[in-house]
Each structure stands twice: as C-alpha cells, then as structure tokens.
Amino acid sequence: MKITFLGSGGGRFSAISQRRMTGGFRIDNLAGKNYHVDPGPGALIRTYQFGFDPRNLSGVFVSHAHTDHYNDAEILIEAMTRGMTKNLGTIIGSESVLEGFERWGPAISSYHQSKPDTMVLKPGESHNFNNIEIKGTATSHGDPTGVGFQIDYNGFKLSYTSDTGYFDELVEYHKGADILIASVLRPGNRTINGHMCSRNFIDLIEEVKPQVAVMTHLGLKMISSNPVTEAKKISKRTGVKTIAAYDGLSFNVNYNNPKRFRLISLKDVQSSVHSTSHSMYESERKNSYQMAFKNNEFDELSILKRQ
Q1: What is the domain range of residue 9?
Q2: Strand ranges, E, within the chain
Q3: pLDDT tens digit sequence for 179-199
C-alpha cells in the first residue's frame, strides 16, 4: 500500500490562497485497489502532476460537504467511470455528501452517482467491500453528518479523522490504528471550533498509540509556524513517529513494521506539458489519439453514435 498526499493544505483560506495544495490524498494498492480521499480543489491536476492516473481509481471517499473536501470529486468520478460510460467504482461519503442533510449537500449530483456504487458511511457502521472493511468514525464539525474512517485490511488498520474537533469518544473510534492520519489545522494550543490543534493531536496520539501519525489539512497558521517543527515536538512528546504531510509526500506502508518506511518527495512529472514548449506540444498531439484509444476515450459525438 502506498499513501500519497496530493495536497497538505486545508480550511477555506488555505484552499483559496493555495499556499498548500488541497487535492487530498491517494491510497494505492490497498488489496489491489486505488482510492482518492477528500479530493478538494486541484485534485485532478495534482493527480497528473505527481504521476498518477485518475482512471485507475476504484473508489472516491468524501468525508463531508465542505468545498475543500469535495470540489474535484465529480470529475474524478467521471475519470473512474470512463466519462460516465461504465458502471465502475464506489463513492463512499457522508449522508450530506450523497443524500444531502439540511443545508449541507448533496455535494455529488445524482447524475454522478448513477454509474458507480454508492455507500453512505455513518459513525460506528462498518461495510465490507473490495476485500477490506471500512468503519465510519464520528466527527465534531460544521457538517453534523461528517465522517472519518478506519480501514481494516487483514488486521492492519489505517485511520483518518477528517475535520473534527477533539472529543472524548474520538479515541474509541480510532483505537487500534497502526497509521493515524489527522486533520490538524492549527499549531500549539490554538484550537478552533470543529478542528484540532497540535495539543489535541498529542492527546489523540497518546490514547490511540499508533505506530505512525501523520498530520495534514494544515491551515495558514500551521503553515506559517513550520509544520515540521510541530511534528518534531509531537514526536518528542508522544514517542510516536509523527510526520507533517507536504505536497507530493509519498511512502510505501510496511504492514509488518509500519515505522519502517522511506519518505519520497514526488516531482512534477508533467512540467513540460504545463509549459509552452512547442516540441512537447507536438509530441503530445501525436500521442493523444493513441492514449484515447488505449483508454477507450472518445468524444461525445462518437459516444452518441454508438448509443
């Protein structure tokens, strides 16, 4: 299993400013399947930028109906379903994301829900699919139906808190996690309603006792305070290896010993495409038909004719 952060920023002001990318993260080769978690603004672009293909997704997880978590979900669903032409993949989301709840959502249209399977995830409920078990974990956040998750794959557990304030029951939902990924918006004790700060993350780590802890979804105050320094403080206090996610961070998970891994900094593999290089443009144009044919991608007119 490989975990890759296509963005480590979070909160509306990080999303607006893009001081950190907000593309969420990918979990690849989990029981042979690939998932995109909380694809916020820029998720599609960052997917290609860091060398991934959105067409090989098996699922898209959206924790709640806030823009910095769902913005690019629909275009990733289109990629997963080959332009909405195939019944492929699964959308896993909160009640607000898939069905709508009061003034929140739905964040994904009924059209985009028509081809994949859909799974409404609620706190404490577990579902088995694709050879894994996923359990919904409760949050205390602006969207009252928001969820995190804990994935169990043959006894190995990966937890994700999503956006939440700290509350006593949070520990119980994430107990047993080998890797704990948490949204930590602010440094030190500077908490804000519906989000965790470093102090809260320390409390959570000390109770859950994961092998590895990762903080992501960093707000502007955390970014300005140097997240690496915060992570070192948390590691020293808890004795648990703690990583501050950054844009393009990737690592392979060792199921037998999660603490043994090497951090990889991914580069922009599409930098030439993003430039105005004429030679690259010609090459891209020449190969575009071959790539489209390989992935069974045709324009709308061709699709209509076949139908």
Answers
A1: 2-126+214-269
A2: 2-5, 25-30, 33-37, 59-62, 90-93, 117-120, 126-129, 132-138, 147-153, 156-160, 179-186, 196-197, 212-216, 241-244, 249-252, 264-265
A3: 999 999 999 998 899 999 999
